[in-house]
Amino acid sequence: MMGSMDNRSISCVMALSVSLCACEVVETTTAAAEQAGTNLQGTNLQGTNLQGTNLQGTNLQGFQLGAATLSGIGLANLRVEKGELIAERDGVTLRGTSLVGTELQAEARIPGAAETTLVAYRIADVAPESSAYDPTHTGSTNLYTLEQWVEDSESWQPACAPDADGRRVAIPIAATWDEKGNRIESTSLFTFGCTTGVIAKCYRWGYRPWLTGYGEDMAEMHQTCTRLARADYCGDGVPHTQNGTLVNVWDNLPAPGPIQRHGGLLPPLGMIFEAGWGPEGAVCLSHARWLTLGGLLVNVCPGRLVPPGLGGIACNSVLDVLLLHPSVRMFNESYVNLDL
How far apart are CA 302 and CA 189, in angstroms? Predict the structure, then answer.
């Protein structure tokens, strides 16, 4: 489970953001074969958003699979397969750059409201994903440059903020997420995750929901990663981190895993073990994290996480986590942030 930390890469962990949330980029050291911004057995930046598609207080619920058009003609059987959009028109299969110019409708909703509105998007470009973002060597992912129709200016505007490579691109995922950060399987909607966002970041780190052969449901692993990347301890969609908090992420998936390795025998300098994670959030926290967040978490997720002083058990290592929760697969270390 442990490996060397010769190549440390720091990447931004934020979310699909039509509101163009800014993402602080810090100095990154990579091997010559790595692309800057990748996360291969290294340290990453946490972020607070999941989908981040906040349109003046309105959140995207997902993109409609049944409402895509190209040159004014409807597309049939639009679907997401292994990180790629595919559709049919007049008996011809369209994929890759053949879908440039496709217009899509996304459903948006004010949090807590039942009504939804439609937001128009179009695909301005399609390009292959770099192999540097494919630690499992499974390929088949495209990057989509999205534009959103803005009524006020009557123009198409970029839908994604620039990522660590300076690209405004997104990856399609065959699921949606609600306001509480829960993954929802859907036959009518899908998600476009900008590469500045947690959904796409976890995908790029290798936790591709469609993968098999790692002894686990990889959709659950991807969901676990989204909780970890936002420090969503309670599993309620509320992040407990600051944008740019450094975090070291790894898993204990069986061969051919792990996908992400710890990187060394000791934590990166200044980091402490923080938590073990599952798809519903943190399963237990270290003493150090309880010292900084104890009062807050007791109030916001009672019964979900119980501090040591009130009968709960802290976990200060992977062994501690596995003794309490043998099925846990993801862990992290982070800097202690006292300004949360």
Answer: 33
Reported as a single tens digit per residue, the pLDDT across 151-174 is 888 999 999 888 889 999 999 999
pLDDT (tens digit per residue) in 244-255? 677 899 999 999
C-beta separation of 102 from 49 below 8 A: no
Tell me how long the chain is: 340
What band does 92 get if pLDDT is binned at 50, 70 and 90?
very high
Q: Which domain holds residue 58?
A: 43-335
Residue 127 lies in a domain: yes
pTM: 0.83
Residue 24 belongs to some domain of the structure: no
Cβ atoms of 46 and 196 closer than 8 Å: no
The two tokens of residue 283 are: 């399963």
Is residue 3 within 8 Å of 261, Cβ to Cβ? yes
The verdict on residue 11 lying in a domain is no
* 47 touches 14 (CB < 8 A): yes
Find how far residue 110's CA is from the centre of its chain. Answer: 22
Residue type, 107: E
Residue 76 CB partners (closer than 8 Å, separation 6+): 87, 88, 89
**Domain tally for the chain?**
1
Which single residue is written with the structure tokens 């150090």? Answer: 288
Helix (H, G, I), strand (E, B), or coil: what is residue 275? strand
| Pair 149, 156: CB distance under 8 Å | yes
Return the DSSP state at 215.
Answer: S
pLDDT digits (tens, 9 = 90+) for 295-327: 677 777 777 888 887 888 899 999 999 999 999
Instruction: Identify whether the C-beta of residue 248 lies closer than 8 Å to the C-beta of residue 332.
Output: yes
Contact criterion met (CB below 8 Å) for 314 and 260: no
| Cα 234–chain centre separation | 17
C-alpha dist (Å) from residue 225 to 284, 291, 309: 15, 24, 28
